[in-house]
Every structure is written in structure tokens, then in C-alpha cells.
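Target protein
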Amino acid sequence: MSDFTPETLVTHLGREPTAHHGIVNPPVYHASTVLFPSVAALEDADRHPFDGVYYGRYGTPTTFALEEAVATLEGGHRAIAVASGLAAISTALLAFTRAGDHILVSDSVYFPTRRFCAETLSHFGIETEYYNPTIGAGIARLIRPNTSVVYAESPGSHTFEMQDIPALASAAKRAAGPGPRLTVIMDNTWATPIGFKSFAHGVDVSVHAGTKYIVGHSDAMLGLIVCQRESYDAVKTAAARLGTCAGPDDVYLALRGLRTLAVRLQRHAETGIALAQWLQSRPEVVRVLHPALPEDPGHALWKRDFTAACGLFGVVLKPCSKAAVAAMIDHMKLFRLGYSWGGFESLILPCHPAKSRTATR
């Protein structure tokens, strides 16, 4: 079905009514134990646990429907549904690292990713080096013989720098040379599988906080890891060993949300740009951080590589007291204070990205 538009695909992928008595939506399988008809069948399943319904933690037909839909939408081979966006990030990183490795991570990365690297990977003897998100092909000079992962996020969290993903991925792989494969992992939550086709731009593994736009209603926790053929077994094995499976009802809610992703994302983008343009005219504002705005430093990259925007962006305020910022936020009528994004509600948060930057200002 790859010849169809994303708007068509999100309403058709992951559905096989003929397999479920004509029912439009895949039923929700609440399952742990799966029964096998014979010892021979059990032993065969043990040899190929990723190829069918084996045990609830490895996935059910409901899980497989979501995974197939998201993987096809983004242009990947297969996907793995896990318990949260952070579970997707940590599982993908653990799948391609071992003691003694060096990894490169964008300095504008989602803070829980940074914390995982600092507080978990470091304990396993894995060194994280942060790079300027605008480095592009310059990433080559940071590649070492033991560099196993280059981790990207475009646009970056809080500050929304655009990364030249094709240049970054190509240069990193050339610099790594022969030997063990260097893996390029990208957090593609902002654009979703509709707005950015990771694999067409050189990415090996794409991670998503499905909690955000794919679920879309602030009522489920979910992560998705989309893989190329070469990377799938390593990630699926890591997910199975870690036990980071997604719950059946959360998977169902993600499938439901996926059906309206295209129309929701379009509205999020339109509203976000309208708000961003209005904020540009405000005297309290120094700068709006939104790559879909022509004035943004990353706009040319966004326009070249992306086919959609979303409703998440940043605003730099003129210097003022913390009390003044709190007063503004506390008295909002429609925008409420809370973590996450991508739901139907409007959210606002004060952010202090300088506290977690080490490679850039």
C-alpha cells in the first residue's frame, strides 16, 4: 500500500477485517499465556519467538496491527511497541551498545534521554559525548573506532534546532569505515511518521513517544521503535529481554488515534503556526523557535526534508523575573501547565535548556 497517501494509509493499515469476522477494528487481546497444540509446536515457537503469537510480552495480534501500520507509514521494515517513549529510547540505545562503547548524542536531546545516558549507560561503561545539533557532516570528526551509535533528534527539544539528518547519517557511516555497523538512531516524535520519513534520509532506527501525537488524546503511555531489516532482530531481542512491552489497552488507543493522525496533525500545524506568528508580534517576545517559520535558522532544512509540522514550539521571552513568568502562566485560561504534548489540550511550560547543555550554548 506504499503508493497511497499518508492520509489514506492511516485509515487502512493494520486492519484485516477478514481475519476478524468482518470487524473493522482489530480486537483487543488481553493475553499472557498462549497455548500450543503439541510439544513439537511449542518447540518450533521457541526457535522463532518473533515470528508469531508466542507469549503476551512478545506481542499479540493487536500489537502486531499497530506495529505493522506505523512501520509501513514511516517506510520501515518492522516496528516494536513498548511501554513508553522513554522505553523506546532506552531499548534502542541498549540494543546497540556494550561496555567500552562511545556514543554521540545531540546536545538538544530530550532531557530524559540525556539522563538515561548519564545515569544508566555510564554505569555500564558506555561513554556519551554530546555534539552540536547543527554539526551535519562535521559529525565525522567525532567518530571513534568504538563509536557504536549516533543519536539524533530533529527538531531538538526546547530549542528546536534542525539537524541535517542525511548529511549527518552519511558522514557518520563513512567515517566509521568497515567493521561493526554504526547505528544512527533518531527521535522522530515531533514530525511523526507522516511528517518525516526517517529511513529515506539515512536513519537506521526511528523512535517515537507514541504517547504524543499517535495516541493523541493524553490517555495512554506508549513507545514505538521502527527498524530497518538489519536492525530489527537486535531491537526486538532487547525489548524481549528488558520486558518493555506495551499494554493491550494502550495499544488499542494508539490504533484508534492513528486513524485521525493525518487530520489532527494538519490542524496542530496550522494552529501552531498561527500562534507562533502572533507571538512574533508581541513586545514580550525576543524570538519564536519554530522551524516551519521562514525566519527560523532551520527552516531550509525543514522545508527540504519534512512534509509536515506540528503544534509544539518554543518562545524566548525578554528578561523578566521568575515571578512575572509564573504570574503569566498561572493566569492562563486555556493553556494549562503540564508535561507531555500532542493531545487535544493546550499546554504551556517554562523551560530552562541552558541547565542541560554541555556542547553548545
Q: What stands out?
A: The radius of gyration is 21 Å. The chain is about 35% helix and 15% strand. The chain has a mean pLDDT of 95.
